[in-house]
Amino acid sequence: MSNPMPNRSGAEAEAAIAAARDALSDESRPRAVERMLRRAEMTARQRIACLVDEGSFREIGGLVCDDGGDRDSRPADGVVTGGARIDGRPVVIAAQDFTVHGGSSGKLGSAKLRRAVEQAIREGCPMIFLLDGGGHRIQDGQDSRHFANGSPMFHNLARISGWVPVVSAMMGAGFAGPTNYAGMSDFVVMVRGQACMGLAGPALVKAGTGEDIDIQSLGGAEVQVDRHGLADLGVETEAEALDAVKRYLSYLPSNARMTPPETGGGESGEQDKLAAMVPADTRKAYDVRRVIRGFADTGSVFEIKPTYAKNAITAFARLEGRPVGVIANQPMHLGGMLTSPACEKISHFVAICDAFGLPLVYLIDVPGFSIGSSAERSQLGRRSARMIYELGHATVPRVSIVLRKGYGLGYIAMCGGRSFDADAALAWPTSEICAMSLEGAANVAYRKQIEQADDPDAKRQELIAEMRAQVSPLRGAEGFGIDDIVAPEDTRRRLVEVLARAPRRRENNVPPKVRSISPI
Q: Which has the higher per-residue pLDDT, 296 or 439?
């Protein structure tokens, strides 16, 4: 379709504009839509309609057209952008349209993406990417007159980080540029069996390295969600992905200057059962998710990265309607030990909560950090330092509760005691707080005494029993390393009380520097 000719009457001009708008609709492009629905559940415009409040989407740049007037073959230049509302709150959306050159971004499509991010920065509202396509359109990019300019897109994504929530839903193909958009997002959800991520697709990988690999093995959800943690959540359908985006945003303010949205009072029906959920025997495992659900508002727990680094739990929840971030060791996996993936998971989550004003609740049952050559190969020294670094920079309220084991540097990194000036440092009666496991301490510190004893096993057990009497929460309270010992059934009440008193932000008391330097 050509551009409207000059000197038309008002009615003719309006008709031409209406025709141009109609050409963008799915109904006007039945063949392209049919091809799309053979590979996915929805088109780009259907996804937007499913995500936002009915009738709230206002498209920006839908009528763009390249110099050749080629609107029919490149409607909206493959990127649908605009403003809308989700649960009544303004958002900015950019959705790739795979029916147009595989969702790749041409000159105008790239300009629309940049403008969308700039709009979200200016208006202070969440930025949502619905990704299904390639990166830069090769047909446009193989010309240095154009490509030498580079793109300010990633500069803008760095600027927007921590100002407004940035969310990506990976709905289909997502190699190259879209993977970087997702990598700079706060939350990423993928559709299993359909979505993929990576810096290069199978064809380019084959050409560049000789490796022959299928698309899902290279960058599907099983790889990028479960194994690598590049994405936060894998779901089965597009509708579930869009629901996850809405639920994620429901815990966060529109921008960092606003307070997180509260839902009013909530109830928890499991408080009285908390004590029975955690065995006193430190060798017995239990699911810490039950503990979180036990004190949080009913139905309010939303776990982030549930299939990655399962030895740590990071989740949003609500306490009497107020959003909080919960960080917990998970004894069901590696005894709750902190590994490099767990540290990365926790670090990113702390940064998100701090950026948007969610208090941090730490549930401690940690035997310490992973050790050995495999731990060193994973650069755990720097990953653990990043976890400590993020908490050290946080200005939101924080509460720590030792459920059972609080051992060594893991106890400190999990905000134990006075380590990071917790607004409340608490412990359950079942807890043990010390520098390392009792069994390990006996083997290391008292090795000679044990070896020289007439009955080494009996001596070892005797020493362990003596140490156990010295690592109780009562001893911790006596030395004022913790504020109080709380009964499990009082956990919710104490959390609500502490957070009601604590300022929503602390003064940032760092020295007068330009910035901190992250360990990673």
A: 296
